Amino acid sequence: MSTSATRIVLVEDDEELAELVAEYLRDSDFDVEIIADGGLAEEAIRSTDPDLVILDLMLPNKDGLQICRDLRTWFHKPVLLLTARSGWVDEIVGLELGADDYLGKPVEPRLLLARVRTLLRRSELLASRTTAEGASKLRIDPVSRVASLGGKELDLTDAEFDLLAYLKEHAGEQLSRDTLSREVCQTDYDGLGRTIDVRIGRLRTKLGDYAKKPKWIKSVRGVGYLFVEHEE
């Protein structure tokens, strides 16, 4: 994949449809990677870090709704669902699980392209608004255990508050998952657990952080995370 073009992961097991959609999107200058197995979707999305995911609901080994649910613990860019099922129940469930839009099959390529462009514009607008609001308004009160951003109280669980407070206290330091597990969760990191990553993902969402260009919590490859303290 090119590093300059907008990246899309298409999770679809219908080979003919997947190739049709991918070819249409590539003609519009998108980089598209096709994943045909639901069980491989999350790993592929992690490694690719796409700008948008197109996700079929009916997939082998892991269905699209479960994939969407799992993605929303850490992936904060647009997710567009596709399905051949009829009725509104799946649409509501999918949107409640965090999908950004929904299209039924058969897919009209021009409509799909229009939806993709709309979702990407919305994502970019959110990122620009987050930047424009400024990043120097985060307040943490350890006594009342309240954190606020731009004067608005953040709805954090106790575990999320503890993690955010620790990150802010150690701003500018590269913190490993092992360190965060021991110091925040009081457990040793076994190298496999995703607890820290899940909590980081939720914190990013609540801080309005843009995963592609994070302002608060940056990922450090091979290490863990780094919290950026902005000047007042």
Description of the structure:
This protein has 232 residues and is an alpha/beta fold. It folds into 2 domains: 6-131, Response regulator (Rossmann fold, 3-Layer(aba) Sandwich); 138-227, Winged helix-like DNA-binding domain superfamily/Winged helix DNA-binding domain (Arc Repressor Mutant, subunit A, Orthogonal Bundle). Helices cover 41% and strands 20% of the residues. It has 8 helices and 11 strands. The protein has helices at residues 15-27, 41-48, 64-71, 89-96, 109-132, 158-169, 177-185, 195-207, and strands spanning 6-11, 30-35, 52-56, 79-83, 101-104, 138-141, 146-149, 152-153, 174-176, 217-220, 224-227. The strands form 3 sheets. Strands 2-1-3-4-5 form a 5-stranded parallel sheet, sandwiched between helices. A 3-stranded antiparallel sheet has the order 6-7-8, with no helix packed on it. Helix 6 (158-169) packs across helix 7 (177-185) and helix 6 (158-169) packs across helix 8 (195-207). 26% of the residues are buried.
SSE layout and pairings?
Elements: E1 6-11, H1 15-27, E2 30-35, H2 41-48, E3 52-56, H3 64-71, E4 79-83, H4 89-96, E5 101-104, H5 109-132, E6 138-141, E7 146-149, E8 152-153, H6 158-169, E9 174-176, H7 177-185, H8 195-207, E10 217-220, E11 224-227
Parallel strand pairs: 1-2, 1-3, 3-4, 4-5
Antiparallel strand pairs: 6-7, 7-8, 9-11, 10-11
Helix pairs in contact: 6-7, 6-8
